[in-house]
Amino acid sequence: MRTLYILYKKELKHFMTTPFGWVVLAFIMLLQGFSLTSVLEQYEKAPVQVNMLYSCLSTPIFWFYFIFIFPLITMKQFAEEERSGTLESLMTAPVTTSQVVFSKYLSSYTFYAILWLPVLLHIKIFTWVTGSPAPVSMPEMLGSFSILLLIGSFFIAVGILASALTSSQIIAAIITFGLLVFLIFIGLIPSIAGDSFEGAPLFHYVSVHEHLSYFSRGLVDLRPIVFYLSMSVLTLLFTHHLVDYRRWKH
Questions:
Q1: Residue 57, exposed/middle/buried by CB under 10 A (0-12, 13-18, 19+)?
Q2: DSSP 70-87
Q3: Is 148:97 a contact under the CB 8 Å cutoff?
Q4: Is the pLDDT of residue 30 over 80?
Q5: pLDDT one-digit tens code per residue, 112-124
Q6: Is-contact 177 71, C-beta < 8 A?
Q7: Are 154 and 231 in contact (CB under 8 A)?
Q8: Total Cβ atoms within 10 A of residue 144
Q9: At what angle do helices 97-114 and 222-249 cross, to 10 degrees?
Q10: pTM, to two decimals
Q11: 175 vs 163: CA distance, rounded Å
Q12: Cα(224)–Cα(232) distance, integer angstroms
């Protein structure tokens, strides 16, 4: 555990003590503010039945930055070290492949979770400015953040796998982006083709949009929890075997 903690601390330090991490945080915080602003403009025009967080998670601005978060965070993890040659040195050190993979995954996931903390600040600012509570309840807040963390657990694992496939950060980012767009799109198939075909329940089961809609209303479903956690573990296992193969190959 001590070795894992040292590796994790080293990887997390890369995010928190370099301009890259702070630029990403500022960029995401800015877009989160734009997303909230667009929702508040809707509130001024007409009454809205859904809570504020769900409205923010439904805007085009949200989907724009949400998809780009994962390539930005993960593209360097293995690809940069492979390109610079430091990965080979790391793999010959007295550390296990599991420790290397999990430290990179855990540090990326921690930074991803940090990116959502400004949303709490935005809600607090809303209360200060308007003098009234934000139109979102505690169960809705917990549900929204829970599903964002669950989706992130799987999508970060996908990005780590993509980074381990190549020595180019750009290619790793493109692979991650393509896979995530595909995963999000297949959840929209029932909305496009209808529910009349036999495979519709499967597409509903993996629909990111439906998971966000359900959890952000304060409702909890065990199926998405099982899906995202199991897919995260499976993807990390693929990454482990891939990195392990490279390790013994060299």
A1: buried
A2: HHHHHTTTTHHHHHHTHH
A3: no
A4: yes
A5: 999 998 888 888 8
A6: yes
A7: yes
A8: 24
A9: 140
A10: 0.90
A11: 8
A12: 12
